Task: structure prediction
Amino acid sequence: MKPFALLGRAVLAALAMIGRIALFAVDAVSHMLRPPFYGREFLSALMNIGWLSLPVVGLTAVFTGGALALQIYAGGSRFNAEAVVPQIVAVGVVRELGPVMVGLMIAARVTSSIAAEIGTMKVTEQIDALVTLSTHPMKYLTVPRVLAGLIVVPGLVAVGDIIGVFGGYAVATGTLGFNPAAYIRNTVDFLEPLDVISSLTKGAFFGFAATLMGCYHGMHSGRGAMGVGRATKTAVEGAAVLILAANFVLTGVFFTL
Amino acid sequence: MIEMKDIRKSFGSNHVLRGLNLSIPKGTSMVIIGGSGTGKSIALKCILGLVHQDSGTITVDGKDASKGDRDAFLARFGMLFQGGALFDSLPVWQNVAFRLLRGSLKRPHEEARAIAIEKLRRVGLKEDVADRLPAELSGGMQKRVGLARAIAAEPEIIFFDEPTTGLDPIMSGVINELIREIVVEMGATAMTITHDMTSVRAIADNIAMLHEGVIQWTGPVSEMDQSGNPYLEQFIQGKAEGPIEAVR
Ligand SMILES: Nc1ncnc2c1ncn2[C@@H]1O[C@H](COP(=O)(O)OP(=O)(O)OP(=O)(O)O)[C@@H](O)[C@H]1O
Ligand SMILES: [Mg+2]
Result:
């Protein structure tokens, strides 16, 4: 019996957590729609999540695009299909790798820092202090970050897509002997509007999920340094799993329905 | 007038408050004393709604503290947290002027800054700390910034959780005087937690002694020394022997 009881308890705990996060998300959105709105906090979140993530997003994308071009060339040459490198790189990066890599990078960089920051505020009573100063923590801390994630991560995904495709282009034209003009023409002709739309939609979902998980786990951090550490770890794990699961569902919605 | 009736609060098997009753008349200064870990901070947090009591009621001017417009309720309070609880992403003056920079009490930027600097001066801090970050200040300085923040919007009711802990004797004197001034001149209601008996005598109109989850003794500070209450006597004299065990 014991293993079943343990398993059951774990499943129930997981379901309860999902429920609480869903309620938190609804609460966050409802606060987004009501004043006051803290513009300064929003701008600083935009800066942190968007602008300061550009270097890591660019580096991840360029290497992933490059590696993808090498793989497709090597794999394709087994059945004389090396010529499809531009098309597959374009589809692979724009539809899947761009948004997923950017999403995971945001989970690593942004979710962790949000969870640690808000968690520290929680354990040092700064959140209580906010409340006593008539400032709603949800409005002051969560809304600016989640809204910034929602708006700016699609932009990061667009940048990641372009740089990822460029990474493939650089490798293909530099070492694999592709004609630069033909490579670009093939890429542009092959991509469809839906590819780009799906990519940006995923970005918005991932931005929302990553920032929300950071805020939720930070706000519910346990006591002390250990509590903050655990909150940060759980937030990043949660964000990564949520991003990958949402990616699967969204791919299904966009490309099989 | 703040009234706490039969407040109970437990954390798991740790029964912290076990039927606390206390009333603080308007415009007076109440000092709560009691051993470390007896639930003094928790009691203040219950009034502000930061911690929810398991049972019991709290009324402020006859109205239930947990009902009604929360913003309007909290706007009447100022609180100095035991650990300071300064926002470490904001410079000192913006911490002090936090309430004056947003919400219903919003003032123009320059005015808010001027008020912040004036409040900093009242807690014995010079203007040059205004633009520093809280992390660059010493513990005692942070405490005083927290105090300045608590009084910045001139609230009617102010809670001070250990305002003089970590301060030198001279600075403690300054802070005690300031708290007294706020009550006498501004007519504020103050509730102070302290372990420092000098502060108790300087600040209090009334004192309350919390032990084992209930108020063991409460009364005017003038009667404190002839209370005949063994808990209070042991506490005032700082003796190891008595009804309060040294290991808790
Ligand atoms: N969030 C919490 N979770 C669990 N227990 C808590 C929590 N907050 C406080 N406690 C417990 O409640 C008790 C009272 O805490 P409180 O902070 O009110 O003490 P205190 O009287 O202010 O002590 P001190 O003078 O040392 O500040 C302690 O035993 C503490 O362990
Ligand atoms: Mg305390």
